[in-house]
């Protein structure tokens, strides 16, 4: 999963305290989640704080998972633009789903997808949805289905090379998981050069 992407709309680079804090949280969370949680709260940059809190939620005792995942989601919404929020939400959503908080994860996925059309330029929207799809698909391909539908609506593969590459990536991931599944990705694509190229790649044309 992508660890860091700085929006073109946000020129400030993260503090070293955030970079080092996230790394330390990741190191200690499996063995000392309480100390990791306290450290995660001190991370100043929201992107890194959301990732660190997600890491703690992954290792926390069952009774604390919902609360800590909620804190990670709140941190994601503290990011300075929709681009960063949509992208980094892949972390808490993956953990919430994997730790049995499916109802919360579905509701929060619906909520963050409403932000996706606001992400500009198109290249940034594509990358943010790529991050979101990859994280949620790693948890459960059915959970990631609404993101795939958003990609179909918001990222025409003939309008940007990054979009064409995203469709290819999704087709490859699904094909690897189940032979023949790339065909459904290609069938859902709008008619055009990208669809034709992907069909040839998978020998469907």
In short:
The chain has helices at 16-28, 33-41, 46-59, 65-77, 82-88, 90-98, 102-113, 122-139, 145-154, 161-177, 182-188, 193-201. The protein starts with 15 loop residues before the first helix and ends with a helix. Helix content is 67%, strand content 0%.
Structure report:
The chain is an all-alpha fold. It has helices at residues 16-28, 33-41, 46-59, 65-77, 82-88, 90-98, 102-113, 122-139, 145-154, 161-177, 182-188, 193-201. The radius of gyration is 18 Å and the shape is elongated. The model is unreliable at 1-11 (pLDDT under 50).
- Rg over C-alpha atoms, rounded to the nearest angstrom: 18 Å
pLDDT average, as an integer? 93
* Helix amount: 55-70%
Distance between the termini: 32 Å
Strand content: under 5%
H/I helix tally: 12
Task: Based on the model shown, name its key terms.
mainly alpha
What are the SSEs and their pairings?
Blueprint: H1 16-28, H2 33-41, H3 46-59, H4 65-77, H5 82-88, H6 90-98, H7 102-113, H8 122-139, H9 145-154, H10 161-177, H11 182-188, H12 193-201
Helix pairs in contact: 1-2, 1-3, 2-3, 3-4, 3-6, 4-6, 5-8, 6-7, 6-8, 8-9, 10-11
